[in-house]
C-alpha cells in the first residue's frame, strides 16, 4: 500500500494520455471509440463543472515542470465533492491512475442505482472489475477515497472493500458507473464498467451497535445527572434517641422558631418505639411542652382573623368612598344633560357626554350591588350573633367552659398520678438495687435521693388534694349554673306566651282597621300601573319580602329617574296588594314589603 502511494508521485505518465483535454469533445469521442462506445450528444459540452475540477487545468504541465498531474480523487485536495443535489446534473471527468484509467459514464444516462444504506456502513461492493485487475490495482484506485482496512477479492470480477470511516464510502460510491481500462489495452479482459454499492457487513453492524450503546449510556448518564440536579434535597436524617439528645430536644420544643423541626423528631422517636419504662417521664414532659404551643397557635390564628376583619373593613370603607365619587360623577352628567346646559354643547360633545354618562351609571350600579351584597352578609352575620346572644346559648357556652375547665383539671390530676407512680417505681428500683450492701457513700446519696423523692411525693399529694378541692368547687358552680338555666328557661317560656298574646291582639286590631278602611283611590296614570306590575312580579319571586332600598336599586336599572319615596308612597296606597312587616330587634330592625294580593282575593 505504501509502495502504491509512493508511486503516485513518481510515476511517468504517457504523453498520449496527458495531451488529451478533458473538455475537448474530439478527445472524448476518440477515447469512447477506443473503448468500443459511441458518444451521444457531446458536441461542445463541458464534461466537468468548475465546482468539481480546477479551473483551467492543463495535464501537460507535468512535462514542462516535472510536477505530477493533479488527480481529483487525491485525499485532502477536496476535489471530490459530496453528492450534488438531484436537480443539478452531475458531470464527471476522466481519472488517470498509475496502472489504469477511469472513464466517466455518459452524462445522459440515468445515475446508477444503489441499495438502502445499512446502519454504520463502512464496506462497499465493487462489481464489473476487469478480469485482469489485481488487488494492487484496486487498492491504487480506491485508496484515494480514504484509508482501506481490508480488501476481499473474488475470482468472479468483484470484491468488497472496507474503509476506516463511514464518509469514505460516499467517495467510493462516486466512482460507480466509471469504465475502468488497464493501461492502453483494448482487450475485453482489461476493461470493465464499475458498479459500486453499499455492502452489509457484520463487523460494520457490530461497531455501529457498540457506538449506539455507548451513546445510549451517555444519554442515560446525562439524564441521571439532570434528574439528580433537579431532585429536591432529602430531608435531614433524624438522630437516634439518647438522654442527651432528649434534653436538647426538650429545649428546642420550648423555642417557637425550632418547634417544627423538634416536633418531627419527637414523632419519629415515638413511632420507632423509644418510649419505655425509664424514658416515659422524659417523653411525657416533651409531649406536655408540645401541648403548650396550642395556646400560641390559637392566639396567632386570632391575630390573623383580626387582620382579616380589619382588611374587610378598610375595603368596605374604600368601596363606599368610590361609590360616593361615582354618584357625584353621575350627578355631573345628569346636570349636563339638562336643557339649560345641553343646548350649548356641540353634537359630538353631546354624544361623548351621553356615552360617558351611561358608562358611569353602569359602573355605579355594579359597585352599589357589590356594596349591598357586603352589607347583606354583615346583616346575616349580625343576625347569627343576635341569635347567639340568647341567654340559653350563653348558659350553654358557660357550661361548656366549665366542662372544659373540669376536663383540664382531670387531665392534670391524671398526669400527677402518673408522675407519682413513676416516682414510686423509681424508689422501688433504688431499693432493689440497694439490697444488702454495706452503707457506703453511694448508699448515703441514695438515701438522700430517697428522702428527696419522698418529700416531692408529699408535695404532689398536697397538690393533688388542692386540685380535688378545686374540682369539687367547680362541680358545685356547675350545679348552680344548671339551676339558673332551668329558672331562665321557665321565664323565657312565660315571656314567649305574653308576646304571643300581644301579637294576637295586634293582629285582631289590624284586621279591624283593614275592614274599616275604604277602598284605595284608583291609579292616576299608566306609569303607575306599569310600576305596580313590575313591583308585584319582583315581590312575588321574593316570598320573604324585600326592603325599600333593595327594591329601589332594582327599579333604578329600569328607570334612573324614579326615587325611593315614590315607590314607598305607591306601596302604601295599595294596602290590599302590598303589606309591610318588621323583622329584627333593636338596631337590626328592618322594614320589608311583601306581595299579598292573592291573600286579599281569597278573603274577599
Give the radius of gyration: 55 Å
Shape: flat
Distance between the termini: 129 Å
Q: Give the number of helices.
A: 19
- State the helicity in percent bands: 55-70%
GO biological process, one term: ultradian rhythm
GO molecular function: NADH dehydrogenase activity; protein disulfide isomerase activity; RNA binding
Keywords: Biological rhythms, Cell membrane, Coiled coil, Copper, Electron transport, Membrane, NAD, Oxidoreductase, RNA-binding, Secreted, Transport
Protein name: Ecto-NOX disulfide-thiol exchanger 1
Fold and architecture overview:
Strand 1 and strand 2 form a beta hairpin. The N terminus is likely disordered. The radius of gyration is 55 Å and the shape is flat. The chain has 19 helices and ten strands. It has about 600 residues and is α+β, with helices and mostly antiparallel strands. The protein is about 60% helix and about 10% strand. The strands form three sheets. A four-stranded antiparallel beta sheet has the order 1-2-6-7, with no helix packed on it. InterPro entries: ENOX, ENOX1/2_dom, ENOX_RRM, Nucleotide-bd_a/b_plait_sf, RBD_domain_sf, RRM_dom. It comes from Junco hyemalis. One of its GO terms (cellular component) is extracellular region.
Keywords:
10 strands; alpha+beta; 19 helices; secreted; 4-stranded antiparallel sheet
Question: Concise description?
Answer:
With 604 residues, the chain is an alpha+beta fold. It has helices at 2-10, 15-18, 25-34, 61-65, 135-142, 167-173, 202-230, 243-254, 259-272, 280-291, 293-336, 339-342, 347-388, 391-434, 441-516, 526-540, 548-558, 564-573, 597-603, and strands at 95-96, 100-103, 123-127, 148-153, 158-163, 179-182, 191-193, 195-198, 578-583, 590-595.
Amino acid at each position: 500500500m505504501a509502495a502504491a502511494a509512493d508511486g503516485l508521485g513518481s510515476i511517468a505518465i504517457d504523453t498520449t494520455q496527458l495531451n488529451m483535454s478533458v473538455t475537448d469533445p474530439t478527445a472524448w469521442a476518440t477515447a469512447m471509440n477506443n473503448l468500443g462506445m459511441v458518444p451521444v450528444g457531446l458536441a461542445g459540452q463541458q464534461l466537468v463543472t468548475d465546482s468539481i475540477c480546477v479551473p483551467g487545468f492543463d495535464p501537460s504541465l507535468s512535462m514542462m515542470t516535472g510536477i505530477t498531474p493533479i488527480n481529483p480523487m487525491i485525499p485532502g485536495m477536496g476535489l471530490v465533492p459530496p453528492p450534488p443535489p438531484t436537480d443539478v446534473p452531475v458531470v464527471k471527468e476522466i481519472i488517470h491512475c498509475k496502472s489504469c484509467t477511469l472513464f466517466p459514464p455518459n452524462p445522459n444516462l440515468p445515475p446508477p442505482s444503489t441499495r438502502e444504506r445499512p446502519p454504520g456502513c463502512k464496506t462497499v461492493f465493487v462489481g464489473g472489475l476487469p478480469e485482469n485487475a489485481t488487488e494492487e490495482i484496486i487498492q491504487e484506485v480506491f485508496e484515494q477515497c480514504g484509508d482501506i482496512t481490508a480488501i476481499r477479492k473474488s475470482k468472479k470480477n468483484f470484491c468488497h472493500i472496507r474503509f476506516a470511516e463511514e464518509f469514505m464510502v460516499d467517495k467510493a460510491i462516486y466512482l460507480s458507473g466509471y469504465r475502468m481500462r488497464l493501461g492502453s489495452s483494448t482487450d475485453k479482459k482489461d476493461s470493465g464498467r464499475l458498479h459500486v454499492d453499499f455492502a452489509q457487513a457484520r463487523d460494520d453492524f457490530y461497531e455501529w451497535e457498540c457506538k449506539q450503546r455507548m451513546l445510549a449510556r451517555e444519554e442515560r448518564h446525562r439524564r441521571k445527572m439532570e434528574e439528580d440536579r433537579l431532585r429536591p434535597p432529602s430531608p435531614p436524617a433524624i438522630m437516634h434517641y439518647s438522654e442527651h439528645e432528649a434534653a436538647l430536644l426538650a429545649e428546642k420544643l420550648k423555642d417557637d422558631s425550632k418547634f417544627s423541626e423538634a416536633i418531627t423528631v419527637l414523632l419519629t422517636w415515638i413511632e420507632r418505639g423509644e418510649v419505655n419504662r425509664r424514658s416515659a417521664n422524659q417523653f411525657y414532659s416533651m409531649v406536655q411542652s408540645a401541648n403548650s404551643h396550642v395556646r400560641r397557635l390559637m392566639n396567632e390564628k386570632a391575630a390573623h382573623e383580626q387582620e382579616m376583619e380589619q382588611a374587610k373593613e378598610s375595603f368596605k370603607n374604600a368601596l363606599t368612598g368610590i361609590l360616593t365619587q361615582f354618584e357625584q360623577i353621575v350627578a355631573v352628567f345628569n346636570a349636563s344633560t339638562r336643557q339649560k346646559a345641553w343646548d350649548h354643547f356641540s353634537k359630538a360633545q353631546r354624544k361623548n357626554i351621553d356615552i360617558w354618562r351611561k358608562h358611569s351609571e353602569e359602573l355605579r350600579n355594579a359597585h352599589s350591588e357589590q356594596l349591598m351584597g357586603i352589607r347583606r352578609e354583615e346583616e346575616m352575620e349580625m343576625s347569627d350573633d343576635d341569635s347567639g346572644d340568647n341567654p340559653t346559648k350563653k348558659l350553654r357556652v358557660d357550661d361548656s367552659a366549665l366542662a372544659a375547665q373540669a376536663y383540664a383539671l382531670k387531665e392534670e390530676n391524671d398526669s400527677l398520678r402518673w408522675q407519682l407512680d413513676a416516682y414510686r417505681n423509681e424508689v422501688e428500683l433504688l431499693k432493689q438495687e440497694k439490697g444488702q450492701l454495706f452503707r457506703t457513700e453511694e448508699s448515703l446519696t441514695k438515701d438522700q435521693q430517697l428522702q428527696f423523692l419522698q418529700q416531692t411525693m408529699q408535695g404532689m399529694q398536697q397538690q393533688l388534694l388542692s386540685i380535688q378541692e378545686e374540682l369539687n368547687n367547680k362541680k358545685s358552680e356547675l350545679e348552680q349554673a344548671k339551676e339558673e338555666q332551668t329558672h331562665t328557661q321557665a321565664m323565657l317560656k312565660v315571656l314567649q306566651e305574653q308576646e304571643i298574646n300581644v301579637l294576637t291582639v295586634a293582629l285582631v286590631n289590624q284586621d279591624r282597621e283593614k275592614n274599616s278602611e275604604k277602598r284605595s283611590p284608583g291609579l292616576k296614570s299608566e306609569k303607575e300601573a306599569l310600576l305596580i306590575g313590575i313591583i308585584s312580579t319582583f315581590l312575588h319571586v321574593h316570598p320573604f319580602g324585600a326592603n325599600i332600598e333593595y327594591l329601589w336599586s332594582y327599579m333604578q336599572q329600569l328607570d334612573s329617574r324614579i326615587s325611593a319615596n315614590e315607590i314607598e308612597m305607591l306601596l302604601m296606597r295599595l294596602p290590599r296588594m302590598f303589606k309591610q312587616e318588621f323583622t329584627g330587634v333593636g338596631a337590626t330592625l328592618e322594614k320589608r314589603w311583601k306581595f299579598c294580593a292573592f291573600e286579599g282575593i281569597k278573603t274577599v
